[in-house]
Design brief:
This protein has 106 residues and is an alpha+beta fold. It has one domain: Beta-grasp domain (Ubiquitin-like (UB roll)), CATH 3.10.20.30. 14% of the residues lie in helices and 20% in strands. It contains two helices and five strands. The radius of gyration is 12 Å and the shape is globular.
Length: 106
């Protein structure tokens, strides 16, 4: 089964199984990683599923839509590799993807 590596805010890395077709947000919450709040449930309206994606994997992901870009623009922690996990639908070829949960905006 494909998996992704997720680093939480304390620096602990977990390898979690993914089901192709689900989002990275769903995979992380299904794995019980509490740092990813995902308050809006994946509706792209809160940015509490902000993650950093390993730079070399960014080109493999779907392009960022305007609403995701707008939400990330409000984050104090936005970086060039920032994405919202709710907007990243996983495929088999994402096996080995690495993501880190961004700090929480207060």
């Amino acid at each position: 089964m494909p998996h992704v590596h997720v680093t939480d805010r304390s620096g602990e890395e977990s390898a979690i199984d993914i089901r192709p077709g689900t989002t990275l947000m769903q995979a992380i919450t299904d794995a019980g990683i509490a740092d990813l709040l995902a308050l809006c449930g994946g509706q792209c309206s809160c940015a509490t599923c902000h993650v950093y994606i390993q730079d070399d994997a960014l080109a493999e992901l779907s392009p960022m839509e305007q609403d995701e870009d707008d939400l990330l623009a409000c984050s104090s922690y936005r970086k060039a590799n920032s994405r919202l996990a709710c907007q990243l639908r996983l495929r088999d070829d994402h096996d080995g993807l690495r993501a880190s949960i961004a700090p929480e905006d207060l």
